[in-house]
Design goal:
Elements: H1 3-19, H2 22-27, E1 35-41, E2 48-51, E3 54-55, E4 57-61, E5 64-70, E6 78-86, E7 89-97, E8 104-107, H3 119-136, E9 157-159, E10 164-167, E11 170-172, E12 178-180, E13 187-189, E14 194-202, E15 206-214, E16 217-224, E17 226-227, E18 234-235, E19 240-243, E20 255-261, E21 264-266
Parallel strand pairs: 8-10
Antiparallel strand pairs: 1-5, 2-3, 2-6, 4-5, 6-7, 9-12, 10-11, 12-20, 13-19, 14-15, 14-18, 15-16, 16-20, 17-19, 20-21
Bound molecules: zinc ion.
């Protein structure tokens, strides 16, 4: 075979791999509860991107702008689109969402109020839900220090994201985060730099800390025995936010971690290279 043709074929063979960016390879998991990484083109100014009307994280990788879109667990598989605003105007950008099956888990709780809260509890739960939703919907400027996140604790995973949960036989919200089996008192470290935007002691989540990593990329840690930070505090990557505990609706000490993008809770395992398709 002539050498030039050889080289041309080699280029063709490696082209798809080269076209796939590092971020795409690491984070593009377009399923409900996953992440879509979309190329937006080049340009000196960052395009603005919206999914379901909510602003989306946009980062520059080499010369190319990319949107990192959080896909809610409730999203229907199939064709989806984001809105892109840049110097050229406004346009839609389509992408495809695949399906994913999530397993079921059955949990027995002795405290039946944590399964069927009384009216006073419900008033409290709704107030706390609104407060936490506002935190998830906040959008600060600035690029996250790192998109591939550090593990907040080192230890085995005990419950995965998206598991459909039945408490005392009754179905409740699916598991919106990732659990690590670690002893009470273990320090929890922020997986990227950020700012503490909310702390609270909540009915279901117990002692809770929200850390904003930038542009709607938000971590939440809950069930903590102790909170070590204040609202508004700016944290370096790896700073301790608190200690593992079993406060709120928990059957024992563990570290529960949520990751949110554009107000969609997504699988934290994606960001630590532990995603299971
Ligand atoms: Zn959990």
């Amino acid at each position: 075979m002539p050498r030039l043709l050889c080289i041309a074929l080699l280029c063709l063979a490696t082209w798809p791999a080269l076209a796939d960016s590092y971020l795409t390879r690491q984070l593009n998991r377009p399923v409900p509860g996953g992440v879509a990484v979309l190329a937006l083109g080049e340009g000196s100014r960052a395009p603005q991107v919206f999914f379901d009307g909510k602003p989306v994280l946009v980062v520059k990788e080499q010369a190319t702008w990319r949107a990192v879109v959080g896909l809610p667990l409730s999203l229907k598989p199939g064709a989806q689109q984001v809105q892109v605003k840049d110097a050229a105007g406004e346009r839609s950008l389509g992408f495809s969402v695949g399906s994913k099956r999530y397993p079921e888990q059955r949990i027995t709780l002795k405290n039946t109020r944590q399964v069927n809260p009384n009216p006073d509890d419900l008033t409290r739960i709704n107030r706390e839900l609104a407060e936490q939703t506002r935190a998830y919907q906040s959008f600060s400027l600035g690029t996250p220090s790192n998109l591939l996140l550090d593990k907040p604790v080192s230890g085995p995973l005990s419950s995965r994201f998206g598991v459909r949960r039945f408490f005392n036989g009754e179905e409740r919200n699916p598991h919106a985060g990732l659990d690590f089996a670690v002893p009470a008192g273990t320090p929890i470290k922020t997986p990227a730099a950020g700012k503490v935007i909310l702390i609270g002691d909540y009915f279901f989540n117990g002692n809770t800390v929200f850390v904003d990593h930038g542009q709607g990329f938000i971590s939440m840690f809950c069930h903590m025995s102790k909170i070590d930070v204040q609202p508004g505090q700016v944290l370096a990557r790896g700073a301790v936010v608190g200690r593992v505990g079993a406060t709120g609706r928990a059957t024992g000490p563990h570290m529960h971690w949520n990751v949110s993008l554009n107000d969609a809770r997504v699988d934290p395992a994606i960001f630590i290279g532990a995603f299971q398709p």
